[in-house]
């Protein structure tokens, strides 16, 4: 696997909880796990995963996280005295919302009693091993061949494949003691060195999409990528929220030759608003460009 990495911008979580006001040295690094009881699989639908992911990211200063169909792993910087209380509150509120929504398709399940959190030393090797263990869960459970294929994992945050990472990379990346420009690519290679990754490959080079105007992207491809880089609940273009519609329109303006009326028809909107957005002086920001280009470049991120 190659060692060089394309240049790209990685951005900190803009919705970090209040506990992130502390410096990394003031909180413990804890590995927390939650499992559904009686073999229930409450995290089988996109709606359920998007909901729990958003609340975990808002409640914890995440370093690594993965949602599996029947359990959750996370590594976070958190005060030990509050960790289980916060985790239990997030899981309990999710269970209530799941019971009220058919969209989640997981009513009536319960969580097992939460085990005691495991402390992770502030040694770069120990931190990296824990991140690797968490990110490898889908591969070790034979749910995918490569950690990049699993959407609900911070592996994508570390490599720059999401627009708003839930990991504060400048804050926690220093624990790995790797150069910021290549840190995500190094971590991917390290994680993929495990035997459970059946077809390890380096991350695709997004530079052809970042530099120059390629006009061979289809509207179908862009509309499938937008929910992935935003981790939004809606995967159907007609159901895109304002942020997803904006990103789709600007991406279509950059990477396709479709007219405003065709772009508008794809998302079920009025062409006038699409034309206005295409002419507005607010282009895609660097993280949006990086996430879209990387996901368009690497089929694993679209799997």
Q: Keyphrases for this structure?
A:
303 residues; alpha+beta; disordered N terminus
Regarding quaternary structure, what we see is: single chain
H/E element order: EHEEHEHHHHHHHHHHH
Give the proportion of residues in helices. Answer: 40-55%
Query: What gyration radius follows from the Cα positions, in whole Å?
Result: 19 Å
Q: Please count the beta strands (DSSP E, at least 2 residues each).
A: 4
Q: What is the average per-residue confidence, as pLDDT, rounded to a whole number?
A: 90
Global outline: globular
Percent of residues in beta strands?
5-15%
Strand order of the largest sheet: 2-3-1-4
Major sheet attributes: 4 strands, antiparallel
Class based on secondary structure composition and strand pairing: alpha+beta
SS element count, helices: 13
Distance between the termini: 21 Å
Unreliable stretches: 1-22
Task: Describe the protein.
The chain has 303 residues and is α+β, with helices and mostly antiparallel strands. Helices cover 43% and strands 8% of the residues. The chain is built from 13 helices and four strands. The chain has helices at 46-59, 80-100, 124-135, 137-140, 155-159, 169-172, 180-191, 207-210, 219-230, 242-255, 260-267, 271-279, 286-297; strands at 28-35, 61-67, 71-78, 118-119. A four-stranded antiparallel beta sheet has the order 2-3-1-4. A hairpin with a 3-residue loop joins strand 2 (61-67) and strand 3 (71-78). Helix 1 (46-59) runs antiparallel to helix 2 (80-100), helix 9 (219-230) crosses helix 10 and helix 10 (242-255) packs antiparallel against helix 11 (260-267). The longest helix has 21 residues, at 80-100. The chain is globular and about 55 Å long. Residues 1-22 have low confidence and may be disordered.
């Amino acid at each position: 696997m190659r060692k060089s990495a394309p240049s790209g911008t990685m951005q900190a979580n803009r919705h970090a909880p209040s506990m992130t006001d502390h410096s990394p040295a003031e909180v413990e690094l804890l590995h927390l796990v939650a499992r559904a009881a009686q073999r229930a699989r409450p995290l089988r639908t996109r709606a359920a995963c998007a909901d729990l992911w958003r609340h975990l990211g808002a409640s914890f200063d995440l370093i690594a996280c993965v949602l599996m169909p029947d359990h959750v792993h996370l590594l976070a910087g958190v005060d030990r005295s509050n960790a289980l209380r916060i985790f239990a509150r997030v899981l309990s509120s999710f269970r209530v919302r799941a019971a009220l929504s058919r969209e989640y398709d997981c009513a009536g399940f319960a969580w097992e009693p939460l085990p005691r959190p495991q402390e992770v030393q502030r040694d770069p090797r120990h931190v990296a091993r824990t991140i690797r263990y968490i990110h490898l869960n889908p591969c070790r459970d034979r749910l995918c061949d490569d950690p990049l294929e699993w959407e609900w994992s911070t592996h994508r945050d570390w490599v720059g494949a999401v627009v708003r990472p839930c990991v504060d990379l400048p804050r926690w990346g220093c624990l790995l003691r790797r150069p910021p420009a290549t840190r995500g690519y190094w971590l991917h290679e390290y994680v993929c060195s495990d035997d459970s990754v059946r077809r390890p490959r380096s991350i695709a080079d997004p530079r052809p999409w970042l530099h120059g105007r390629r006009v061979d992207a289809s509207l179908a491809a862009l509309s499938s990528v937008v929910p992935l880089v935003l981790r939004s609940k809606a995967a159907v273009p007609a159901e895109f929220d304002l942020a997803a519609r904006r990103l789709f329109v600007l991406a279509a303006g950059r990477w396709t030759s479709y007219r405003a009326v065709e772009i508008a028809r794809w998302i079920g909107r009025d062409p006038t608003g699409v034309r206005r957005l295409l002419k507005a002086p607010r282009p895609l920001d660097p993280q949006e460009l990086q996430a879209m280009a990387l996901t368009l470049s690497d089929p694993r991120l679209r799997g």
